Fold this protein.
Amino acid sequence: MATRRSVAIYARISQDRGGEGLGVDRQLQDCREKTARLGWTVADEYVDNDISAYDRRKKRPAYERMLADIAAGERDAVVVYHIDRLHRAPIELERFVDVCSIAGVKDLKTVSGDYDLGTGDGLLHARLLGIVAAAEGDAKSRRGKRKMREKAENGQPHGGGMRPFGFEKDQITHHPEEAAVIREAASRALAGESLTSLVRWLDEADVRTVTGRPWATTTLRQLLTNPRNWGVRTYKGAEPVKAVWEPIIDPADGARLRSVLLDPSRRTNRTARRYLLSGLGRCGRCGEVLVSHPKRGVRKYECRTSANHKGCGKISITAELLEEWVVEAVLHALDSPAMAQSLAPGSDDTETERIRAEVTRLRQRQEELAEMYADGEIDRAGWSTARNRMQNRVRDLDSALAGLTRRHAADPYLGKGEELRQQWEQMNLDRQVAIVKSVLNHVTVLPATVPGRHGLDPARVQPDWRR
């Protein structure tokens, strides 16, 4: 037997739940002993830990590096614990054989047997074991998927992998500090605070994800819309079931979070807000929306007439004065029994569920419509007309649903106007706007009765409250 002086040892383990790498270490030890018995010299060890060879979507960097070294003529043999550590799919074995054939590498040694890739019998043996390994991998995958589905049906966590934020390693017990973060973030998001603002808060509080990275708006949205946080187990489109763990937030709040944060009309690229009442002011002469902008260094709300604005141009009011008046009116309204009754939590839950059910039905009908078109039951024109009508209806319902969920921004402050007054200046503008919008449809500004009068004439302002 020829002496090999540039041997590659390859080791891999699919799952290393403890992270200790013990399975790989045992493979390496046995491969070293095998190489020593042969009197060969190891040039390098290539290790892929916690990486499956069966899932070809996952790259195996050490394996790819070994192939490159073989192709470059830098390795003259390969030693591996078992052939299934090297490949789980026949197509990968053929690629390995091709690379070795071109490079003149014929020796593939395992702890349990040897293969001469330069002979027909040796290659056949390797291929047969490769087919067996692929079949075992398929069976293992099916068993794994069935076990995952069974766990989901019983409301159990999937187990393995990275623990979810808010839970301990068992994926059932709450992580006290992280669970508190989820509750506060959920409350602030329901109160209208933007994801960007919440990410900034988490960064300032030095709160990191379970991987130790800073939060991004996408990861925070995923966290706040994950049914796991309100005690629901989901699995690949199957009917959700009650989980075995206790919810971190109320399920009703979870549903509202999904409505707000997954609303298709929600803009994520808006510029920073500077005006409390942007979009809420109305001209008392023509009814057009007042435009917020600075004028000679002073923030104003004005009715404008231009190519983009169809107002009369006859109403203007200082933003600071109007905003101070509206804030005081909102705080007073929150202490009003009539407003408290109108905005009481749960008062619009029936309407919310009705809209959600209608949206679900419409989306199912959209799928049925697509199938009818695919089967030739309707032509393209009929499909397009019906689809557009349903899309417009879904868009209107989504907008109405978003409006209903926004009303809950004032829930924590009903009957507590004075308490809110103490907190108001510490709130960011996003939260302030959400609270104002939850109780106010718009505010109409009438013409000044005394031109040039200093201060705000309360008679000019007519709030339209939500009922």
Notes: Confidence is low (pLDDT under 50) at residues 16-21. Residues 120-153 form the longest helix (34 residues). The longest strand covers residues 42-49.
